[in-house]
Design a protein that fits this description.
With 97 residues, this protein is α+β, with helices and mostly antiparallel strands. It starts with a strand and ends with a strand. The longest helix has 17 residues. The chain is built from four helices and four strands. It has one domain: Alpha-Beta Plaits, CATH 3.30.70.
């Protein structure tokens, strides 16, 4: 079973975001993942869960839940967390497909 990892983001520092974005794909690839889509939210139709605001998203693909988990907790990705925290507020979750 493969996994999509979805990130909902509200950018807070464009410079830090560009630094993060230039490095994160390499960490994803180390764990057999790929970035499938990135984009800007054009319209929020419903927010019945009262999620925090977000303006952009990313969709990653991993061949297995184990690969996704290994990436999210890897030393390579964890090294980017300080930059990520400066760049954005993030909700990140996995979806089995």
């Amino acid at each position: 079973m493969s996994v999509k990892v979805i990130g909902l983001m509200e950018l807070t520092d464009q410079g830090a975001f560009e630094q993060y974005r230039s490095q994160v794909s390499q960490t994803v690839e180390l764990y057999r993942g790929s970035i499938q889509a990135r984009g800007t939210i054009t319209e929020l139709f419903w927010n019945e869960l009262d999620c925090a605001p977000f303006s952009t998203f990313v969709e990653l693909h991993f061949p297995s839940p184990e690969d996704a988990h290994a990436w999210a907790h890897s030393p390579e990705y964890q090294a980017l967390v300080a930059i990520r925290n400066k760049a954005m507020k993030l909700t990140l979750f996995g979806v089995a497909i």
